[in-house]
Amino acid sequence: MKLLAVVNPISGGVDKNPFIKKAVTLCENYGLDLKIFKTTGQDDEAHLKAELKTFNPDKVVSVGGDGTTLFTAKALLNTNICMGIIPLGSANGMAVELGVSEDPLQAFKDIIMSNIITDLDLVCVNKEHYSIHIGDVGINANIVEGYDKDTSRGMTTYIKHFIEALNKVDPFQVNIACNQKVYHKKVVMLGLCNGRKYGTGVPLNKEGNPMDGRFEIVLIEKINANLLIKAGLSSINEAFIDNENNTVISTSHAKITFNEPRLLQLDGEVIGTFKTLDVSLLKGAVKFITTQQNVYV
Question: Which InterPro entries match (predicted)?
């Protein structure tokens, strides 16, 4: 078996070398052909696609967080190569969604051993940007932007930018055309969900399923102390999901417009500012290696 590991060395500030050493030893012991591809930030997509053609792996392993998972998935579009996830980033939301083991080496063993291959959806925005997990406009996108620009990483840095963004909450008008209806709302955040929960464990909706051919638009009209407490509790028990201040729309295509250009983040990456978002669902775009621990199987 030929395995290509796509490694983001800096994701989450997590040292990937201990895992790589264990993975190499495991593959040598069982006669598996493992190749390591490390991202550098310079033409990574083109280099990875070239590596895929040259090496022609049986399976691809994404080693990092949600951003690395998305990067790997995009490179595998229009191929029959399947992929799995090793959760080693600051946000491992998609790994959690899909029942991936928290132990990186066990997750790697599961990828090697499993014959359960499922179809995983992708969300496409404006025909050129993609999300495999959760994207949003509003307060969380502002948090991601601040975190992305910071030289520090980790939960302390995230909390710092969370507090800063919370103090600058600015409700905005959004218009959504989908399902032969038009919705008009004033919100502090709009979520685009292929899954249900952020990497922090806080869910945005109960309906999300990354394998059902639909995505969810979540409209949050206000954020206050009580809502934040509920958000924290909801990471433990989904019965605490705030439905009073949330509107959830399930669809396969939507056109979203704002009163002025708004910052968009997708899977932890700041994409830019947009006044209009044309969002569509690419059903079964990626072949995903999973186990029976995945609640969607």
Answer: ATP-NAD_kinase_N, Diacylglycerol_kinase_cat_dom, Lipid_Phosphate_FormReg, NAD/diacylglycerol_kinase_sf, YegS/DAGK_C
Residue 64 vs residues 5, 39, 172, 250: alpha-carbon distances, Å: 10, 11, 33, 29
Q: Residue 200 to residues 120, 231, 238: CA-CA distances in angstroms?
A: 22, 10, 13
Does 154 share its domain with 265?
A: yes
CA atoms within 13 A on the CB side of 217: 29
Query: Is there a single domain that holds both residue 49 and residue 181?
Result: no
Q: Specify the DSSP element, H or E, that contains 157.
A: helix 155-166
Tokens of 247: 């509107």
Say yes or no: 156 and 65 in one domain: no
Q: Are residues 212 and 96 in the same domain?
A: no
Average pLDDT, the chain: 86
Contact 134, 191 (CB under 8 A): yes
Its domain, for residue 67, covers 2-114
Q: pLDDT, tens digit, for every residue of 215-239?
A: 999 998 876 555 554 444 434 445 4
Mark whether 136 and 276 lie in a shared domain: yes
Side-chain-side CA neighbours of residue 291 (13 Å): 16
For the chain, how many structural domains are there in total?
Answer: 2
Q: Residue 142: which pLDDT band, with cuts at 50, 70 and 90?
A: low
